Amino acid sequence: MGKQRLFINRQVAAGITVVFLSLPCWGASSGPDCSGIQRWPTQTTKVRLAEFGFTADQLDDTKTKTELVATMPVKGKAGTDTVYQQVYRIHFLTNSGEPVNVMTTTLANDEECSAGLVSIALIAKELSH
C-alpha cells in the first residue's frame, strides 16, 4: 500500500511539474484577455460559486481580481476564427473578508470571451511568496 501511494504521489507531482513548466510556453500564445471583473470568466464563475456555497451577494465586487494565467489556441490558426483555451486565476473576497480563490478554464475566440466555460476549481489552500 505504501509503495502504491508513493508511486501515485510521484505521478501526480510529475504531472503538475509538466503543466507548470509548459505554462510559460502556453501563455506566450496570442488571444483575447478577458480578465476584467465584468467579463465572462469572472461573472460566470461568480454565479457558479453558489455550487461551492458562496452566493453573489456574499462577495465584495470591489476587491475581485482576475488574472489571465495562460492561453493556447486549440482550433484554427491565429487571426482566423481561432478558439483559445484560457486559464484564469480569480480572487474573490467575501464581505466578511474570507478569500475565495479559483482557477477556471474557458474557451474564447478573437471576437468574444464567452465561447464556453470548461471548468472551475476552488483552491482550498494556497501558498504564496
Q: State the helicity in percent bands.
A: 25-40%
- Please give the largest β-sheet: 4 strands, antiparallel
DSSP summary, beta strand count: 4
Q: C-alpha Rg, in Å?
A: 17 Å
- Head-to-tail CA distance between termini: 35 Å
The average pLDDT score comes to 80
**H/E series:** HHEEEE
Q: Looking at the structure, what is the overall shape?
A: elongated
Number of helices: 2
Uncertain stretches of 5 or more adjacent residues? none
Task: Describe this protein's structure.
With 129 residues, this protein is α+β, with helices and mostly antiparallel strands. The protein starts with a helix and ends in a 6-residue tail after the last strand. The protein is elongated, with a radius of gyration of 17 Å. It is 27% helix and 36% strand. The model has no long low-confidence stretch (mean pLDDT 80).
Short description:
With 129 residues, the protein is an alpha+beta fold. The chain has helices spanning 2-27, 40-48, and strands at 65-77, 80-93, 99-109, 116-123.
Features of this protein?
129 residues; alpha+beta; 4-stranded antiparallel beta sheet; 2 helices; 4 strands; 36% strand
Please specify the SSE layout and strand pairing.
Elements: H1 2-27, H2 40-48, E1 65-77, E2 80-93, E3 99-109, E4 116-123
Antiparallel strand pairs: 1-2, 2-3, 3-4
